[in-house]
Amino acid sequence: MSFSLLDKKIRELLKERGFKQETEVQWRAIPLILTGKNVLIISRTGTGKTEAALLPLFSKMLKEVGNGSKGITLLYITPLRSLNRDLLDRIEWWSSKLGLSTEVRHGDTSQGERRKQAMNPPDILITTPETLQAILPGKVIRERLKSLKYVVIDEIHELVEEKRGAQLSIALERLEEISSGFQRIGLSATIGSPKEVAEFLVGPERECEVVVADEEKGFEFKVELIEDLKDRLDRILQVIEESRSTLIFCNTRETAEALGSRLKKLGARVEVHHSSLSREVRTDAERKFKSGEIKALICTSSMELGIDVGSVDVVIQYMSPRQVTRLIQRVGRSGHRIGEVSRGILISTDPEDALESIVISCMAKNGMLERTRINEGALDVLAHQISGICLDFGKVEVDKAFHIIKRSYPYRRISKDEFMKVLKFMDQQRILFFSEDEGVIYRRKRTWEYYYSNLSMIPDYRRVPLIDLASRRKIAELDEEFVLSDIEVGSTLICKGEFWKVIEIQQQEGGKLIKVVAERTDSEGETPSWEGEMIPVMSEVSEKVFEIRASEERLREYLESSGVIVNEESISRILDFFKECPEGYFLEVRSTSDLVLHVPGGSRANEALSKAIASLLTYRTGSVATKATPYSIQFKTRNGLEAFREVIKGIEPRHLESILELAISRTSLFKWVFLQVAKRFGMISDAPRLSLDKLIEFSRDTPVYEETLRELFFDKLDVKGAEKIIRTIRENGIPEVSGPLSFSVDVKFHEIVPQS
User: Quick check: 432 and 396 in contact, CB under 8 A?
Assistant: First the structure.
């Protein structure tokens, strides 16, 4: 038994805490951690993985007590500022009983508390990736971090696909320069590519053990197709009434608000929870749910991670979760105890949504997660971290800075030329001083300003506070674009599932919005829109949907093999909906000007393909309206059929990336991403002096332009997937089918590709 390997004090406390025997993750991970190995732990929520990581580290720390060091020994990094209260209580309980001190530090920590932590550091510091960036250059804290021996990264899957992860990976290497080296532990409930994430955790030069614990705790998924809105609401109310506590997950904040308002009108005891609501509103909703004052919480991805809301009986997923990993995270919030089943009900609004939900549920039951996509080589992160390394040392040799960067996994492939291009650009911007003769980087006064202005890699959406007229408290934050384009004094909008009438819109001189003041009303209103909403569907899901949607036999075999529950009425409706659906790829010809290409590329590959084909069609037919879904791409353009045939015949897969670079550089999305990247490079502040178009043209050969393209290709466009589809079409041809087909409906067009 691995518990027997722990310090005697911990073994005694295990009895006091009620631990009768270790879980699988604990008996597998504890011996590895005790021997000093770096370990990535993958185990479902509620299986004791936090104790599997911390108890052996506490055991080692007890043996080291009294060595005279006055510093931080264990750093616990969590992606959320609002650390799970239950998790924090557990860490504090163990540390206090063992005579170890624990403190939390994030953006809201007071100045007095920060000074105290610097002068009298805790044994264990809990922090976020951004706060770690903030403290790394500090002279006193750097002294306190020299004693660092252990780093735990919680919910590591939340970081690896984002620039936050790339930034953290270099921060860990900067920590290595301060300390004499430390043991690394990563924690996650769901990871599709364990080997790659383990390498991300430790870098390409170190070893890491992976512990994947398949605990007894299982999942029960039911998919229900309910096309009528009233029937859907009635079903949700029924589940709420039959359960003690229900989490209702939506994919967007708009959907959460709309659903919340309708359920509240029907008398349901529910609240809404998402990241654009104020902290006070979210905390109040969490408290009400945990105490039983309300029976259901309608939420978005804000509730996937470690926020403590107590016991959850059942999870409702409203519409397809779009990704297997998200479904596991969400439904895993229910049935927290060992051996309990996590129950999820997926309520679908149409047959295609239902089939996608079935595929995702079956993949979850069979343990088939999407591949993890690690965000590699971000140049704006590189610029920020070069400035951080410069602050760490005051001056630093170029080769040393390059070596620190290259030790991190996302930058293992970076060339010296790429590094030097970014470094020279920063020198030109006077962010730092690069002496080419000496091969040394020196910090400037502006280095500090630039570094601390760009601690966060989270996109900077302009937000306007919505204030309750009666209490003067902030209810939520609205996107500035929504306020400017969609509301005025007297408008009514929905927030936290309630209706609010706008009384005042305050603006500064020059037009900058300050706040929106509103009061509660009974009049129905508009749901706010927020940027950055839709979750992409991966090709693994769309390909399986394509495989089974045209065959009753394959659909029923697939369901039987996985154990996902779908009632006969829903199955019959899905089969009837897709009865005209041909097998494989095909082109639906609705008219010579209205074409739908049916291909299972998933969100990103189909988006890439739609932009590339539309760009080439533009030269032949004029303007083209296009819209991509994970399963099809619709094109509307005059006399488009012949032009489409020519484009498909002539397009070379190897040229796709170049075509896309030209196509996306003219879009509003490119301009928005460019603006964000330019700010992170310190090239501009809030408002550029030049017009944005001129600034983009001026920056064409700079790292800012390169990073804008890299970010768009990573986040929005799967070029490799699009190339694969083109090759398949060129090898096998593309059958043409007369439309419109009954299952193929018009989609909302979101972009017009203009004629050059």
Answer: no
Q: Provide the phi-psi class of 602: left if phi over 0, else alpha when psi is between -120 and 50, else beta.
A: left
Place of tokens 């706060």: 131
DSSP, residue by residue, 284-344: HHHHHHHHTSSSEEEE-GGGTSS------SEEEEES--SSHHHHHHHHTTS--STTPPEEE
Q: Same CATH fold, 219-249+259-372+550-571 and 2-212? A: yes
Tokens in use for 513?
Answer: 């919005």
101 near 80, Cβ under 8 Å? no
Q: Residue 625: name the closest of 748, 723, 749, 519 by CA.
A: 749
DSSP 156-193: THHHHTSHHHHHHHHHHHHHHHHSS--EEEEEES--S-
Angle between helices 379-393 and 163-178 (to 10 degrees): 20
Instruction: Give me the sign of the Cα torsion angle 669, 671, 675, 681.
Output: positive
Strands 474-479 and 751-753: unpaired
* Cβ 42 vs Cβ 189: under 8 Å: yes
> Taking all residues of the chain, what is their mean pLDDT, rounded to a whole number?
88
Sign of the C-alpha dihedral computed for residues 72, 77, 81 and 86 taken in this order: negative
* Distance from C-alpha of 192 to C-alpha of 186, rounded to nearest angstrom: 14
Q: In Å, what is the CA distance from 388 to each residue of 138, 222, 393, 447, 517?
A: 11, 49, 9, 8, 40
Distance (Å) of CA 280 to CA 285, 287, 298, 589, 685: 9, 11, 16, 53, 30
Both structure tokens of 496: 């936290």
Q: In whole angstroms, how far apart are CA 297 and each of 374, 497, 699? A: 32, 11, 47
**219-249+259-372+550-571: CATH number:** 3.40.50.300
- 633 closest CA partner among 547, 725, 503: 725
**Sequence ranges of the domains in the chain:** 2-212, 219-249+259-372+550-571, 386-446, 463-520, 584-753
pLDDT-above-70 percentage for the chain: 92
Quote the radius of gyration of the chain (alpha carbons, Å): 27
Task: Give the span between the Cα atoms of 34 and 95, in whole angstroms.
Answer: 18
**Among the listed ranges 164-173, 200-209, 346-355, 612-621, which one has the minimum average pLDDT value?**
612-621
Structure tokens at 746: 């018009």
Residue 105 makes CB contacts below 8 A (sequence gap 6+) with 113, 114, 117, 125, 126, 127, 131, 135
549 token code pair: 């949607």
- CA separation for the pair 304, 307 (Å, rounded): 8
Cβ atoms 623, 756 nearer than 8 A: no
Q: Does residue 374 come out as left (phi exceeding 0), alpha (psi in the -120 to 50 range) or beta?
A: beta
CATH number for region 2-212: 3.40.50.300
Inter-CA distances, 230 with 222, 240, 246, 346, Å: 20, 15, 19, 16
Indicate the pTM of the whole model. 0.88
Q: What separation in angstroms does the CA of 332 have from each of 16, 92, 341, 695?
A: 27, 25, 9, 47
Task: Report whether pLDDT(749) > 50.
Answer: no
Task: With a cut of 60, say whether residue 85 has pLDDT above it.
Answer: no
- The domain defined by 386-446 folds into Arc Repressor Mutant, subunit A (1.10.10)
3-state secondary structure of 113: helix
